[in-house]
Fold each of these.
Amino acid sequence: MEQLIEQLKNQIIEALNFEDMTPADIDTDAPLFGEGLGLDSIDALELIMLMDREYGIKLADPKIGKTIFRSVRTMAEYIQTNRTK
Amino acid sequence: MKIAITGIGVVSAIGRNCAETLDSLLAERSGIGMMRYLGSAHTDIPVGEVPYPNTELRRMAGVGDEPLPRTSLLGIIAATEALEMAGADCDAFISGTTVGGMDLTEQHYNDYAEGKATEHIRLHEAGESTMAIAKHLPALASCHSSFIATPSTACSSALNAIMLGADMLRTGQAKRVLVGGAESLSKFHMNGFNTLMILDRRPCRPFDAERNGLNLGEGAGYLVIEREEEARTRGAKILGYIGGYANTCDAYHQTASSENGEGAYLAMQAALRMAGLQPADIDYVNAHGTATPNNDLSESAALIRLFGGRQPAISSTKAFTGHTTSASGGLETAICVLAMQHGLVPANLNWSHSADGLIRPVVHTERRPLKYVLCNAFGFGGNESSLIISAEGRELTEQPTLGNLTPLCSVEQVDDTDISAYVSSAEGRRMTPQMRRMVAAARRVLWQSGIERPDAIVCATQWGCMLQSMRFLQDMIDSDEQELKPTPFIQSTHNTIASLIAILTGNHGYNSTYSQSNRSLDCALMDVRCQMALGRIRSALVLEFDEQVDAWDAVLSRIGDRTHNIAKAYMYKL
């Protein structure tokens, strides 16, 4: 799990162009949207693409992202259960 | 003075002229169906295609086999109808588009690498697709030496074209103007909207509680406008009048509209004020109504704020035509003129579920006389425009001379070290290096001038945001339309720069973008000068933007051209 979280943080940094950040700068349990990283609806779409590209998870409804993308940990947990690659 | 409409012309999924369009509106016959000509891999996505292949459109447009984007073919067809109806030549032509010749680029991109099909390259440019329309219409012959402009503010482009045309009449810069817009479907923006997950796999349902996104459409819509005295003198039939108009910026987000519909509310309110009307005077609103969850909720909020409990008849005609993006303001204004002429309110098709916070549209085409009609067109970046058409002439102020314009200050060079001082890494994370440079130049000129929020932000760009466009195009071709990211698409539209600066500086003022080859800046300055002469604005931030892109240079080298990095900002003040 810890390895997946670390890998996911790196993928988020790359996909969302957080050039100056390292995985240590992202709190695993902090909210990704609103406060915390302060992501918006475009980032949510980028994360949906990331889930498909890296883990073979297809999310058809953008609204579902709201619960899955609550924090890096909730994302990692969802990936662990649902990944197809 | 009064501005009369003496000609209209349309082509869309519901008809190749006004008569067919009227017939479809009355019969409540939608043009949305499965894709036949676009050739995208996403065959499950319904579209509002003009139901003819390019060969047939060429025949209708009366052109041979010279290189022409589908946008220009649609433009020629609708423009011909408007000009014939008006029965007179125009001395200015203003036509909005964003797609331009993207259909040719995506079709021939791999040919270009082999040195083939190079006659299409130049037509990629939005402004060139407008020039191609003008070239084929004898009634626009004098425009080449006078004025041709291409506003490119995404889905509000054509409505902004109508506004500039009206301003030019009011300032004596033109005698008769053809205004509107044209846009064909392209795989590029079909895939782009698909990455945003806002394309409904069923026919779209504007303002319905269970709506699930938009259907893209294509088409063109034009109006011939001129001074009322001019129209009367030559005995032209007057179809209606321009009552009022306004352009604002939501200044909220690159793609999402604000919850309270601030920009839309301000645009409609200012258009009413200019027309000297009260909300209760409006008989019909042709809403932007794309059927995305976000647009319809935000637009409803603005409509409810403006009209309160006395809601006029409201409908979105996008369930007939699909969302014709940059052409929508021209097509839907022409539909409003048709509706007024024939006394009908077009249906908002496919609506069945109401919800709190959403306006209740007219579900069947109704016969009723219309005196004042309001038409909305909103674009990416919060470029919001509203226009009022009236059955009786409204007196508009005029100012027959334009003042000279010299910049109060300018920034023509930004060093790399300045960029980090003006753009934080968090806010710049999605921007290309050249976009950051442009934002830095704009912020520096705002600071130097001491004008924090100028009344207008107007950008001039030849190729637009080309780096993001090329990233998206290459990914689309390489992955056969399968692996695409939303960010490059969102930032591929020409209006990205002007709207981004409005968002970063909280500026709800006038916001526009022009793309007209090496005359883009002249177009932007014409707009600013007209508005200053008319007293609508007192200050304007003018931006010049282009970016050097290796991949596009490789294509342009085939015709001996290249791209350049340009990021200049000027402040003008009365």
Amino acid sequence: WAKRGCSSSSPKLLSQLKSQANITGNTASLLEPYILHQNLNTLTLRAACTEHPVAFPSEDMLRQLSKPDFLSTVHATLGRVWHQLGAFRQQFPKIQDFPELERARQNIQGIRNNVYCMARLLHPPLEIPEPTQADSGTSRPTTTAPGIFQIKIDSCRFLWGYHRFMGSVGRVFEEWGDGSRRSRR
Amino acid sequence: EPLQLTPEIHTVSLQSALQEANLEWTVPTFSHQELNIVFQIEISRMRTSNTIWVGNYSTTVKHEETVHWKWTSDIPLECATHFIRIRAMVDDAQYPPQSSWSNWSSWKEVNAQVSVPPDTLLIFPEDRLLEEGSNVTICLMIGQNLYNVSCKLQEEPIRGEQLDSHLSLIKLNNVVFLNNAGTNINCKAMNGTKNTFGTVLFVSKVLEEPKNFSCETRDFKTLNCLWEPGIDTTLSWHKQRSQHYTLYESFSGRREVSNHRNSHTWQITEDSQETYNFTLTAENNLRKRSVSISFNLTHRVHPKAPHDVTLKTVGATKAHMTWKVPSRGDYTLLCQVELQCEGEVIHEHNVSVHTSANYLFSDLEPDTEYKACVRCASANHFWKWSDWMQKKFRTPEAAPSEALDVWRDVRTENGRHVVTLFWKPLLKSQANGKIISYNIVVENEANPTESEQYSVRAPALGTNLSLDLHPYKIHISANNSAGASPESLVVLSSHSGHEEVHEKTIKGIKNGFNISWEPVSGDAIGYVVDWCAHSQTQRCDLQWKNVGPNITSTIITSDAFEPGVRYNFRIFERSVEENVRLVEKQRGYTQELAPSVNPGVTIHNLTPNSFSLKWQDYASDFQSGFIKGYLVYLKSKELQCNPNWERTVLSDKSVLCKYDVDDPETKTLTVENLRPESLYEFLVTPYTSAGQGPNETYTKVTTPDVRSHMLLQIILPMTLGVFLSIIVCYWKSQWVKEKCYPDIPNPYKSSILSLIKSKKNPHLIMNVKDCIPDVLEVINKAEGSKTQCVGSGKLHTEDVPTKPPLVPTEKDSSGPMPFVFLENFTYDQSAFDSGSHGFIPGPLKNTPHQLGLLAPPNKLQNVLENDYMKSLVESPTEETSLIYVSQLASPICGDKDSLVTNPPMPVHGSEYKKQMALPGSLTSASLKENNLTS
């Protein structure tokens, strides 16, 4: 969790979070560059990416959460994403070869900080939920380690799930703004 | 007897990633110490009967030694079971040649297969690293329930060979590099799950040999080795790191791995090794490439740049340069010295140097910035120049070296010479510094002791002088901070600016004029051609060109010359005395253009059958070419062109006639043979050698009809005739009236009386002079009438006021109004009483002489005579008593003062009464008539 000072303005934080969610929800920020870099830009491989998304909390589930739980879930999920993207670095000879990756990680940290600050404005102390168990997505032979092809596909699916998740988060934040979720605690 | 040496395979180990099988076997029956044996190896795939490879391996076998051999499979070993067996044959000089092989060893099964779960597809090799251009075989191991498997290399479908229902092989030849993330192969079974299976081929670029490998020293302490590494073969996913480079020096046996891709610094040891032999090796996961060089250290010296460079100018044209070089014993360097000016090398020299050197630059230009450069190289074995060391310096100014190129324009105004001097700026090489001012000394040749000096500040390039008409010498020089230039001389004679010479027309060439002239005198020392660069604007910008003495032609070119602009050239002859004389004028165009405007045209003498056109002249200097004439176009629906007119039928069926007025001075044209009441359109346009003027809108004119024209011709003279007749008749009637029945008959003029007169009866008519007035009445007369030079006294009806007579009132009188009223009461009293007495309200005009009180003026006399004659005519008898009306006694101009001093006393109501002599019976009527007509 961030140690820096937080803004006391809830609308300002909310505005920033919506903006950050819009940016990170866009596949052009990470998935598309990844697909191009890994030569996955074919109909078959694109389909393989999107037809079996890695399990992220669904939008319906996020809507049903209270605000503190929602923030806690977002914070935890993005923590998992941040670590996972760190593991992606080994796929590239030099970090400069895929600058979008570090940019995405920095954005995720920014969102997590803002989520933390928003949670502080909602007085009940946050509890960090256990990270959502991500489904492996596909069954693969248990006798051998996954090959690079499979890692590519899994990474692609992960990024697709991440973008979808951030899109859902953004839409939930939008509803915060118009007051439609005020009834929840 | 052949030796029976049957091999026995002990182990087969597999390197799946490399698709290699390592075999180890022995020959149990081998009892010799050492023997050369040939082994034949047979390999079958899937079943022993399916032999895929047979080969021989010859080696020296020692007693109880295990033989090693490696086989590389063309397919991944995971894909199929392989079977291997070996047999041997002695191939050694100790034994006679063998003719038969030993028995085969037993088959050895090589099995790296993995089990394929149902609904799963395994693809081998997995993540294989291979070099671009190589071949690879992909095998598909198809699990249960899957069939109809299709694969793609990225997006390109690839087909394979089905070995059995669970194994397919796909051969890929000459694979290409896509990018460092690898080429994806993905496969899918048509009936299976939606899962995509695949593998990645990491195709590496072929490692290149390092290029341009070389080493050199700058300080004899280190060797700097450089090379061009070639393409980077790094691959993602850590499949292959960038190739690394190793240097090996064979004499010292040292080996060092470079930390850079293209360079390495090799420390030179203390023992001063002179010769070096380097091998540079590039290596990646797939191959090595090496290059070698050998050299003597002293032949690879690349000196550092010289230091402590100094420069000192000596006068305005020399500079002394010194510098030092890194020294090493008696090692000699060759230094190259360069002098640059404005980016160009103007001087180059080589100097041998041990530790320090100097050089003197000479023949430099004053006031010029230079850059001195020096670099050095080994004098004995040239390898490379050092970097340049450079220093800028500037030479001081010197006095200008050349006289100014001066020209002048002379014109005469108000009896003086107005001289405009022009000069061209000195070239940098002539000015030798910044020109500050120009000195002008004007010397009157008539009085050499009187000279005037002027200074014109730079950057002015001319000045005006106003001089009298005496001959003058004008000296012009340019000054900078170091001194003055040689003088230029301009000589003016009394005739300067008055020369009248022939002017001729010339034809220009592209961007210029070829001007030639006739020499006037034989002692010309040169000629000057001048012209205005901008002849069509107010700013002339006089240009001139000096021409040598024996040359009578020159080509004047300028980028400023424009087509369609007239340029006027003057050619002057320069004499020994520096006097110049205008010898010729020339004018021309670089390219004549068609006129840009048409003249304004007016129509004259419009008749039913003709009209005349008249147009204006042009200002010749602003023509776009020499006007050669004018084209007159006439257009009409029904038109027959006159002779000498060119006829053209237009698209609208109208006829166009063209007439060429080929004399540019002719500016009128009469168009004849036209139809009455017809519409004609015309256009007048000038033409030059380049064409005619703009095709503007035609001017329309309609010819009148004949009848109205004829009527106009008849009625106008008739009207004039009638009018003249009326005037004549009127005049004649007046004459007749005056002659025959005047208002006041004049007996002297009466023709009736001429007969009587002819009878010499002088007393028939009474002479007024003979009459003695019996009453003299003086009437106050208005001052105004007195000061107005009085009237002529004429009482003719023409002089009678046109307004009715007014009786002056007190109000109307601005002052005393003295006038004289003379009345003879013995005459017709009724005339007076009737109030019909004459009255002249205003001043009497044009009185030619002083009005005598007793002597009526001539005109009055005439009137009286006329009246008298009239009365005679109307009177039945000659004895009719005459009524004499006394005449006006009015002051006259000449008598004004006396009148003022003795003004007549104004009497109220006093007035001048017109007096006349009338027959008694006619008096009343006649006066009334006078009043009516007045």
